Amino acid sequence: MIAGVDEAGRGPLAGSVSAAAVILDPRRPIAGIADSKQLSPGRRRVLDQQIREQALSWAVAWATVEEIDRLNILQASLLAMQRAVAALSVTPRLVLVDGNQCPDFGLDAQAIVGGDSLVTAIGAASILAKVARDRVMEELDLSFPGYGFAKHKGYPTRDHLAAMHALGVCSAHRRSFRPVRNLIEAQLAIDPNRERSR
User: Fold this and answer.
1) What CATH number has the domain spanning 2-136?
2) DSSP 123-172
3) Digits of tens for pLDDT over the chain (198 positions)?
4) Cα pseudo-dihedral 135, 138, 143, 149, rounded to 10
5) Segments making up each domain of the chain, as ranges
6) How distant, in Å, are the alpha carbons of 5, 15, 31, 45, 68 from that of 11?
């Protein structure tokens, strides 16, 4: 059996990074699986439910903001992938990972650049990882109102950067990311009490 693995959330300035691992059931094919970025949010949610119901095994795992800041985003993403594969209820004989690097799963593994578009199981993992992360960012939007997390999902959009400048940095932000770090340093230079820890 083959497990597909992908992550979501490497680029945002806020929130945890997610990873998913999926072993699809060849007897229960799911039509329409593709790279999550090519699908509408509504279509992703429908496929997310189908994958959870019909896959032989699936798991979603995380690396926290603190782990991202401590390890760096690449290592945190690989850690989340390891956790997702370890959480599978079925042990795969081969793990296929989207990208150009594989963490050590203790299993045969191969990295495939563009794998979320080439391998159905990786595409399925990309959908699960993206939908799960989007839901977490919507929850963060309720905890940290004003930043627009539900809309931009933590990516460095103009609105997000403007909110950071107006409200300061919150505990959901990745302090190791340059735009966040630069803002903290600039605001602390003006007012040592400026940084928020909400």
Assistant:
1) 3.30.420.10
2) HHHHHHHHHHHHHHHHHHHHHSTTS-HHHHTT---HHHHHHHHHH---TT
3) 999 999 999 999 999 999 999 999 999 999 999 878 888 999 999 999 999 999 999 999 999 999 999 999 999 999 999 999 999 999 999 999 999 999 999 999 999 999 999 999 999 999 999 999 999 999 999 999 999 999 999 999 999 999 999 999 999 999 999 999 999 988 777 666 655 444
4) 130
5) 2-136, 142-188
6) 18, 10, 29, 21, 11
* 37: helix, strand or coil: helix
Q: How far is 70 from 113, CA to CA, in rounded Å?
A: 26
Compute CA 90 distance to the chain's CA centroid, rounded to the nearest angstrom: 22
Torsion sign, CA atoms 43, 48, 51, 54: negative
Helix residue ranges, H only, the chain: 41-54, 65-71, 73-86, 115-118, 120-143, 149-152, 158-167, 178-190
Between the alpha carbon of residue 95 and those of residues 105, 107, 139, 147, the distances in Å are: 8, 7, 31, 37
CA pair distance 78, 84, nearest whole angstrom: 10
Token pair recorded at residue 89: 């209820």
